[in-house]
């Protein structure tokens, strides 16, 4: 015969389980090191959370790869996060978001999965009928998600897609403000000087070269925005809604992993994470 002790507190057991889930880490990944710009936003907004960052620098850049290959690489990383028992995942890569987020969410419907997309909406809403450059990787710019974004806002502003794949490679080398970076940006931005109201940084690598972009574009300085802060706020809302947001005096820890062997990528990851905020 089955029986239950009257003093058994099922609610207490559920509360303990939920409390334990709150203490699980959050997985964050990128094609390389660019997603560390998003990681900084996440850590700043939610300092009590533990984060695991994985940079797939061995396979960077994703932005010039076929969609199916990016999807396969993304799923491999997600599966490794699942084994580490993360409570949420942030795809800190516009390219991987475009290629894989719908399939990842369908495979893991109970897991909060936050992605990145170019911050076109706030740029458009800031000033109607403006000219907006959207700097991103070639794959991001040719995916259906970006096409839909362009279609949605094309009547409100002049949207100019601008592929900038080499910027990813500069950041992967830790080269953020060199003469070569300035020369490359000069080639890209020369025709838009004085004609651009806003620049959307549609790749998570690009915030690390924002100062160089400002130097090259000159005055009047356009409004520059990226999707990192918005993604951080979205994750915070998701965790709050599921009651798994960690709070209190715990000092969140950040752990870095990279697909490239050796210490160099980890050391560069830590340097980028600790570099000055914009």
TrEMBL record:
One of its GO terms (biological process) is peptidoglycan biosynthetic process. The active site is at 93 (proton donor/acceptor), 203 (proton donor/acceptor). The keyword RNA-binding does not apply. One of its GO terms (molecular function) is glutamate racemase activity. Keywords: Cell shape, Cell wall biogenesis/degradation, Isomerase, Peptidoglycan synthesis. Pathway: Cell wall biogenesis; peptidoglycan biosynthesis. It comes from the Bacteria. Its EC number is 5.1.1.3. Belongs to the aspartate/glutamate racemases family. Provides the (R)-glutamate required for cell wall biosynthesis. This is Glutamate racemase. It comes from Liquorilactobacillus capillatus DSM 19910. The gene is murI.
